[in-house]
């Protein structure tokens, strides 16, 4: 049975689980040029997650996906220089960490941002993504946010369809930093007081 669990309610054993950390760190794939492949992103970001900014979909004990959000200028990933230095050395780590900080700070103007959403391949087309979107909207409402914003790559038509289904409306296109390997994205938003999608 599908259940959505706030990361802040997980036990220390659960938050230390490498498979759960790996799942969540996969959510920054758009920065692969800067942060490396999924194994590298896990080493850079996995040990410093802000679990209070993550919602996880479980079926029994198995994690099927997650949604992460940024609220009050705090997202799911801590800005910690040390893993970058260990992974890339002082010089390489410095410029990569600076680029990551820039990508994070660029999103600070959003009052509540649906930062990332990912469902494992085996669980797709089973309503997990919809449940995570609804849980994120409920989380925003409980924190007093009047709207939820998101950025979705223009080439990700499937994600755009999911968000449209849940009432998100495209506001504009935004060119993200090509130097960091990011592309043009569609910025969409939805008021938290809207009726949920059926």
List the keywords:
Aminopeptidase, 4-stranded antiparallel sheet, single chain, globular, 7 strands, 3-stranded antiparallel sheet, alpha+beta, 198 residues
Structure commentary:
This protein is α+β, with helices and mostly antiparallel strands. It has a single domain (2-146), classed as Aminopeptidase (3-Layer(aba) Sandwich). 37% of the residues lie in helices and 26% in strands. The protein has seven helices and seven strands. It has a four-stranded antiparallel sheet with strand order 1-2-3-4, sandwiched between helices. Helix 2 crosses helix 4. The radius of gyration is 16 Å and the shape is globular. The protein starts with a strand and ends in a 7-residue tail after the last strand. The model has no long low-confidence stretch (mean pLDDT 89).
